[in-house]
Structures are given as C-alpha cells and as structure tokens.
Write a structure and sequence with these properties.
The complex is a heterodimer. In chain A, 0% of the residues lie in helices and 46% in strands. Chain A is mostly beta strands. In chain A, the strands form two sheets. In chain A, strands 2, 4, 5, 8, 9 and 10 form a six-stranded mixed β-sheet that branches. Chain A has a four-stranded antiparallel β-sheet with strand order 1-3-7-6, with no helix packed on it. Chain A is globular, with a radius of gyration of 13 Å. Chain A starts with a strand and ends with a strand. By secondary structure, chain B is an all-beta fold. In chain B, 0% of the residues lie in helices and 59% in strands. Classes of the chains: A mainly beta, B mainly beta.
Chain lengths: 115, 111
C-alpha cells in the first residue's frame, strides 16, 4: 500500500482479555518497528523486525507482550491478559532497511483502552 | 543509552520564528532526527542531521552540534498548522540503529 496501515484504529477491551494489533508496512520496506505512546508521553520503543527476525526483544514491557512478522510483510503485536497500564496508542513504522532507521514512516496507530 | 531533553511546551505567534532545542547524551552518536506529530496523528519525518551544521528545508531548518550534544529545529514564518508536537530522536552507533525519541515539545501557534 501507499502507507503504513494499522488495525484496528481503536480497541476497547476489558482487563484480562487478549488483544491483537496488526501492521501492514510499506511494500518493500524490510524493517518494521513497534512503538508505544502513552497519553502526553514520548514514543517508547518496543521491538523491531529486520525481515521476519526480531533480534532484540528487550524493549517489550513484559512477557505478556509478543510480536511476530511473516513474509517480510504483516506484523502482529499481541498483548495477553491486558492491564489498564497497557492503555496507549501503539504505533507501527517501517523503513527501507535497518540502516534507514530514523527515517521512519509511521502508521496512524492503534488506540488501545483497557477498562 | 541516551538521555534526550527538550522543552515540554512552547508558544509562538503566527508569522514569527521559533527555535525548539534538544540536548542529548549518548555513548556513540549516529544521527539525530526531528519529527512532527499533530494531535491524534502519526509522527512524520522532518529532518536528519549526522554532521555538524545547519540543514535547511523550506520554512524548517535543523542544526546539530555533536561536540555539545545539541540540536535545534527552527521554524520560520509560523502558520497555525504548525501547532503540533515536535519530537527529537537520536540514533546510537552500533547496536540496532533504532532511534530513541524524546518526550516531544508541544508548540502552540496563536494568531
């Protein structure tokens, strides 16, 4: 597609439920990134993919968070047993390659509200 | 790791010039980026500095001093639509090349 696409744009869930957030990067972009932005805060890095591989998962806040990428394209971020502190906008970005990291193209984000 | 500092909020008048500062501390510098983020929207890339000096792009310019760990974003001929959050991000040498973002500066442009 023309830009990075994320779904759902808004998700309201109950505490304890699992959620899946999806990201479709720009076609041909091999690097993909997930960030989290809490209200009024900066961007918190979660995880990145180079191709389908995620070399560093240390940014994930807890073991309730996981992410995968298939076909060097779509990525899903899964949050299990959601907590109220998980409420945030989850932003996905892509770049041509890892060396282009910094010149990121962001999606509109998925706003997650945990009640 | 990096420590990135920028003012929380600034206000300016339409038509004026505003300078948004960013200071950083890093063990190995490999580039500084500025992004613009309108409320409720995705951040969009504005500029990239890796060498000292000023990079000009239309009404926006970005300056970098690596020895001082300092950058600024200069916005000229301010327009109401420039009201947004401006995010400074720094990339470190080696490792994953992933930029670390500051908290952002909320700029309010008033008539």
């Amino acid at each position: 597609g023309a830009g990075v696409s994320q779904s759902p744009s808004n998700k309201v869930t109950e505490k304890g439920k699992d959620v899946e957030l999806r990201c479709d990067p720009i076609s041909g972009h091999t690097a993909l990134y997930w960030y989290r932005q809490r209200l009024g805060q900066g961007l918190e890095f979660l995880i990145y993919f180079q191709g389908n591989s995620a070399p560093d998962k240390s940014g994930l806040p807890s073991d309730r968070f996981s992410a995968e990428r298939t076909g060097e394209s779509v990525s899903t971020l899964t949050i299990q047993r959601t907590q109220q502190e998980d409420s945030a906008v989850y932003l996905c970005a892509s770049s041509l390659g890892l060396l282009n990291a910094g010149e990121l193209f962001f999606g509109e984000g998925s706003r997650l509200t945990v009640l | 790791g990096q420590n990135i500092d920028q003012p929380t909020e600034m206000t300016a008048t339409e038509g004026a010039i505003v300078q948004i500062n960013c200071t950083y501390q890093t063990s190995g510098f490999n580039g500084l980026f500025w992004y613009q983020q309108h409320a409720g929207e995705a951040p969009t890339f504005l500029s990239y500095n890796v060498l000292d000096g000023l990079e000009e792009k239309g009404r926006f310019s970005s300056f970098l001093s690596r020895s001082k760990g300092y950058s600024y974003l200069l916005l000229k001929e301010l327009q109401m639509k420039d009201s947004a959050s401006y995010l400074c991000a720094v990339r470190e040498e080696g490792g994953s090349y992933i930029p670390t973002f500051g908290r952002g500066t909320s700029l309010i442009v008033h008539p």
